[in-house]
Amino acid sequence: MFPAADRALGRFVDRRLFHAPDYRDAARQLGDAVRSLYSERDVTEAWKPLSARHLALRDVRSIPLSSLVAEWPAEIHEGQIVELGPR
Amino acid sequence: MSFWSPYEPEGCHLGIGNLTRSCPAHPGQHELDYLRSVATQLGTRLDLLRLEQDMVDRQNREAVLQQQVTEARLRALRAQINPHFLFNLLNTIASLIATDPPRAEVMTVRLARVFRHVLANSSRQRWSRWSERTSGAISDSTATASETRFLDIRYGARSIAPARDQSAGRVRQHVRKTRQGARSSLRRRRVGCDQAGDGVQRIEQKVRVDLSAKRAELGFGDLLLQDGFTILAIHHILFEAQEVEPGSELGGDGAKIVEFVADQGAPGSSG
Whole-model pTM? Predict the structure, then answer.
């Protein structure tokens, strides 16, 4: 019973006290937005403001895979999220 | 500190989310899940866009190919049945129905035979062999059709006598009459035997005929300007005619007639 209560309590605290965004709803909004776009450039540009708002980001970029330099972590080529140090 | 999520790992365009936060807090699991979800959606959408683009390109190519196939079929049909020749003959038959019904019937039957021959030999090279012409496979039919056509020839107010074009001499006579009545000039020169070596001599005649105003009434010019060589075979004399280009030695409107006659000693020699 504790895990369920802990999740519910945590969600309540996040939403009501810290105003954390509903990421599931945000992802759904993004899906609706990109579904009506028909160019690659529009798709890669459309998610930036949404993600910046929901994740409180200062900067959002899209970088082509071919332009990645060698010192990037190899996991990025395997589809994993990687963390970079300060640059 | 930044976090990057590839949304198309196998593609050449790898979208990467940059989590450069305004506050230095480490992102939680919800944020990373959201980033992963965004990357998945973007990758899916980009894949769909590329598939749609490929499909549109394929459909466009298919449409172009279909159009080319249709045009090729139309050209093939036109090559098999020269429409001008058909129109001329149909007009002749129509006039014969009123004046000479038995002959119209015979001409219709023989016209069917001509087109059957053309259809059966449509995939062959352009020129028929001499043996075919002398064997009567098509010569009788084409001769009758052409003779009948010539019966209907009018040039202005002058009526050209029926040309029973069963010999080169008659054809030349016919051309001379056309020349007299149509301010035309006639030269002829022999250019030797053809490559098939089947006893046919090629005699090129250049005829200058004023076709600009009287072309419709002339009929003769219409007939000779056909490209359907097989249809235009008249017994042992075969015609190939084409319009003379502006600036050529003939100048103005005219027609070049190439006459094929049997060489001396060949069956049905008329040269």
Answer: 0.42
